[in-house]
TrEMBL record:
Keywords: Purine biosynthesis, Transferase. The keyword Flavoprotein does not apply. It comes from Candidatus Doudnabacteria bacterium RIFCSPHIGHO2_01_FULL_46_14. Signal peptide: none annotated. Residues 158-208 form the Formyl transferase N-terminal domain. One of its GO terms (cellular component) is cytoplasm. Its EC number is 2.1.2.2. One of its GO terms (biological process) is 'de novo' IMP biosynthetic process. Pfam families: Formyl_trans_N. This is phosphoribosylglycinamide formyltransferase 1. PANTHER family: PHOSPHORIBOSYLGLYCINAMIDE FORMYLTRANSFERASE.
Length: 253
């Protein structure tokens, strides 16, 4: 049984889906340890409290296992990360998933869980190459921005019409770790950003649950580098424009 913690910043739909799989025994190799939220008043906390109220005894957790610190979207203070490291060690966590978690994770947290920390991303990534649909900092590629950028890119370049739900290793550089699990999602001709988001989200849930199951069974492996670049050199301007458009249209992600 592997002990799991989820880090969240938003609504927590993926966290809730994973926890529901633990509760239902669909994911019976995983034990829930704690939830860490980087801000107060978010949906993920409400979802955690509801499930703990109903299933806390069988899970072996209580509301005291929900930990919240106001970190902002892009960073945290050294003392805050010290506390997160202590949480991971005190709870003897084996694996952490970032489920809509926006702050850039301090390297000490990665070290505290022996590198067993994985991020969910709602679009295709290309580790080992410069250009893809990830990126933190000022680029802020998360949520609907990723879907918007992907749709723009596909339609401007006439490339294959698909997107991808991704689970990848967390490294000090945002969205650059090796992919460990992914599933493609078809893009339909008249898809809007919201259409694509709704189609990708359940696949994100499945990808995370399957990835955790594989981790618990010691079956999780890094995927090989893509044979061809996800973004060819002539397509780079369209990628950059797509990300710019996404940030303008979706200022809150």
């Amino acid at each position: 049984m592997k002990r799991w913690a989820s880090f969240v910043t938003g609504g927590g739909t993926t966290f809730a889906a994973i926890l529901d799989a633990v509760i239902s025994k669909e994911l019976n190799e995983i034990q829930f340890a704690f939830l860490f939220a980087s801000q107060h008043g978010i949906g993920a906390i409400d979802k955690a409290q509801k499930r703990i109220n109903e299933h806390g005894t069988e899970l072996g957790v209580s509301r005291h296992d929900i930990h919240v610190m106001e970190m902002g979207h892009h960073s945290g203070s050294p003392s805050q990360w010290d506390r997160v490291v202590s949480l991971c060690r005190d709870y003897k966590v084996d694996v952490v998933t970032l489920n809509g978690f926006l702050p850039q994770v301090d390297w000490r947290v990665i070290e505290a869980v022996d590198g067993n920390i994985f991020n969910q991303h709602p679009g295709p990534l290309d580790p080992g190459r410069q250009h893809d649909f990830g990126g933190g900092g000022y680029l802020g590629m998360y949520g609907r921005r990723v879907h918007c950028a992907r749709l723009y890119f596909v339609r401007m370049t006439n490339c294959e019409s698909w997107s991808e739900a991704t689970m990848h290793v967390v490294t000090p550089e945002v969205d650059k770790g090796f992919i460990v699990h992914s599933e493609r999602v078809e893009i339909l001709p008249y898809d809007t950003v919201d259409d694509l988001q709704q189609r990708v989200l359940p696949v994100e849930h499945k990808t995370q649950i399957d990835g955790l199951r594989r981790f618990a069974r010691a079956e999780l492996k890094t995927q090989p580098k893509r044979e061809r670049p996800l973004v060819e050199s002539w397509q780079v301007p369209h990628l950059i424009d797509g990300k710019k458009v996404a940030r303008i249209l979706y200022p809150k992600g």
